[in-house]
Amino acid sequence: MTKRATSPINEPREMRYIIVLPDGVSDVPIPELGGKTPLEVAKHPNMDWIAREGLTGWAHTIPKGFAPGSDVGCMSVFGYDPRKYHTGRAPLEAAAMGVTLKADQVAFRCNTLTVQDGVMVDHSADHITTDESAQLIDAVSQRLSCNGVQFYAGVSYRHIAVVNGPDFADVQCTPPHDILGKPIEAYLPTGPGADMLNQAMRDSVGLLKDHPVNQRRVLEGKRPATMLWFWGQGTATALPSFQSAYGKRAACISAVDIVRGIGRLAGFEMVKVPGITGYFDTNYRGKAEHALKALDGGCDLVLVHIESTDEAGHMGDAKKKVQAIEDVDRLVVGTLLDGLKSRGAFGIMVVCDHPTSTPLRTHVADAVPFAIYATKGRKDAICAYNETAVKQSTQRLEHGFELMSFFLSLGS
Ligand SMILES: [Zn+2]
After folding, report:
1. Residue ranges of the chain that CATH labels 3.40.720.10
2. Percent over 90 (pLDDT), the chain
3. Per-residue pLDDT for 129 more than 80?
4. 378 alpha carbon to ligand 1 midpoint, in Å?
5. Where residue 257 falls among pLDDT bands split at 50, 70, 90?
6. 44 CA from centroid of ligand 1 (Å)
7. Does domain 12-86+238-409 have CATH number 3.40.720.10?
8. What distance in angstroms lies between residue 69's CA and the mean position of ligand 1's atoms?
9. Ligand 1 centroid to 120 CA: how many Å?
């Protein structure tokens, strides 16, 4: 009798890896939540399972001297040192949109947002739709008095403006979500090239004022996009491919250009998922299902980014953040764990790019908690994924970008 060939099922299987990145999920104690953080209050049994069965710790994703944004924090989580590769936020978003920058060009992030009576009311103009925004950007770009600014309309309120002249890289700009509720006067661009930017921002007010899109929004009880706002600029950047740096074929799922841009520059495959929005109505379960599909298609690692947790923080809405965490846990992490457990050896990590303080309604630069489970991997005594529980961990990575190697080194 001939011996049967060993079934592939009995051969040791390569580890498959998933990173779940709920943007800005880490937070500070909130009086409204009884002095607890949203992660402490939310029920997230699947994240807790990862912490209980695996290892937890802290990672400094924002190097000293860097502003705590998703551009910097996500670059660290992707495994790239921002001190080496970060030239600005906008070049990463431009990459996601397929906009290639020339060496002497500077890309700015350009928001369609709401300023009323000189106060920054909403950095997103009530999460204006992509279609409405595109019409506004089109109207402004046709009639702006400053020449040489090229606009590229993006998702919802997030657009790119490209200007010629590398000096623009040094202008001082302010992220609009950092000055919610404040008068804008003290936060307008200053330094080289600021005059032109200020002119364009001022012009945009007149051009947007009576635009039919805004008139309709007001009638519908939604905030109009009253102004363009430039920030987050930088020159072109290049990242070594993830395959060459880490020896893994990787894919990325995100509705947000900044994350997709880093992924694209690092050679991640972009997985399309229907119905993902970067907001509370996103297709959470679809993200998990498509991540599993990408693993089945031969990817070694899939990074799944979810934006809603960060958005709730910017809204200053603790309850919404708790709800977003519970949705991520049940629909993303739960679906992933169910799928992974039937697929052999795996590693899964939950981590965020930066904490988003709900009381401050913006990002902070503190270290972020992570939890990693890996088949046959190490285990610590910590049983929950939240700031207080993980405080007991002695695992601390001073350079957040080293978390990727750490994660990939765990398990069988
Ligand atoms: Zn944010």
Report:
1. 12-86+238-409
2. 89
3. yes
4. 32
5. confident
6. 21
7. yes
8. 7
9. 16
